[in-house]
Design brief:
81 residues; 0% strand; mainly alpha; homohexamer
C-alpha cells in the first residue's frame, strides 16, 4: 500500500450535510482504488471501461452505498440533536 | 466527479413515508451512476442493457436495498415516536 | 422511474410476524425490478432465466436478505416488548 | 410467489443457541430459493451445479452471512442478559 | 443439510480477542461451504481453484468481512467495559 | 488456515484516527487473502491481475468498505466523547 495516499480526506467522517457525506463516500471509495492501483496511467485506462459497463456501474453504486451507510451513521444521519 | 450533480435530492435523508424513502433510495443509487458516467448519451445506451439483463436487475435491487437500509434507519423506520 | 408503481405495499415496514416480514422483503425486492424494467413482457421473459440459474437465484437470496435485515430491525425482530 | 411456502420456520428469528441460529440462516436462505424456483425438479438439477462451483459456494456463504447477521442481532448474540 | 456439521465452533460468538474473532469468522464461513458441499473430495478439488483466482479470493474476503461484522458486534468490539 | 498469520494487526480494532482505521481495513482485508492463499508467489502473480481489472478493483473496494464499517463502529466513528 502506498502510504502517501490519504484515505480519508480531512481525516474525519463528519460532514456538514448529507450531500457532503455522499461526496465523501464517493471520494473514499475512489481512494481505495487509487491505493490498490497506484499507477495513474492504468487507472485512467480503466475509467472508461467501468464507466461504460452497466454491471460495473451498478457495482460502483453498491460500494458507494456501503461507504455512505458508515458515514451517515457517523453523522447521526444529519439529524438535529 | 462532476460537482454539479446533486447527490442527495433535498440534501436530507428524512422522508415523510417509507414509500418516499424507497423512492429516495432509487434516486440516490441512480445519481451515483450519473456522477460516475456523466455522459447522458452513454447512460441512455446502457439503460436498456441492464433493464433487460436478469443478473443486472438483481444487482440494481441489491444496491437499492443497501441505500434503503440507511434511509430507513435515518427515519427510525417511519415509526411513530 | 414509473411513479405509478407502489414500492412499499401498505407504505409501512411494520408487519405482524417474521413470516410476513419475509414476504414483504420478497415483494419489495421484486418491486425494484418492476420499477427498473416496467415492461411486464420483458420481466416475464427474464423470470425463467433467473429462476433456472443457480448464480442468479443465490443473488436473489442476497437481495432479499438485505431487505429483510431492514424490515426485521424496523419490527424490533418481532420480539415482545 | 407460492404463498404455501413457509419462509421463516416457526415464524420466529429467536433460537436457543448460536448454532441453531446458523441453521436457521441456512434454512431461510434456501427457502428464498424455493419460493423463487418452486419446481423441485429444477432445484434438484441446480444443486450439484452450485455445490461444485467455487464462486457460487462463496456466494452462498455471503447470503448465509447476511441472514445470520439479522438472526444474531435478533437474539442479542445469544448473550446472557 | 448435513446436520452433523458443527456450524458455530463452541456454539458461541464470544471470543477473547479480535484476532480470535477473526479466526472464528473464517471458520464459520468455511463451515457454510462444508455444509453446502459435504463431499470432502469435491471441496479439496475446489480449494486450489478459488485460492488461485483473484476474483474469488476477493469474494472470500467479502464473506469473512460480513461474518466478522456480526462477531465483532457480539463482542462489543472487544472494548473494555 | 495457516495459524501463523496475524489477522488483526495489534489485535485491536481501535485506532487513533479515521485514516488509521481505513488503513487497518485495507490490511485486514489483505490478510484474509494471505491466509486463504498462503503462497506468496501465487499472491504476487495475482496482484497485477486484480490491480488491472476494473471489476476486481471495485470488488476490492466493496470488501474494504465492509471491513471499515466494523472498524468505524468499534471506534464510535472517532467522535469525541
Amino acid at each position: 500500500m502506498s502510504e502517501s495516499v490519504t484515505l480519508v480526506p480531512g481525516n474525519t467522517l463528519i460532514t456538514a450535510t448529507a450531500e457532503e457525506g455522499r461526496q465523501l463516500a464517493i471520494k473514499m471509495s475512489r481512494l481505495i482504488i487509487k491505493v490498490t492501483q497506484p499507477d495513474a496511467a492504468v487507472r485512467e485506462k480503466l475509467r472508461p471501461i467501468y464507466a461504460s459497463d452497466a454491471a460495473m456501474l451498478i457495482a460502483v453504486g453498491q460500494t458507494v452505498a456501503i461507504e455512505f451507510a458508515t458515514i451517515a451513521a457517523a453523522n447521526n444521519y444529519w439529524k438535529a440533536i
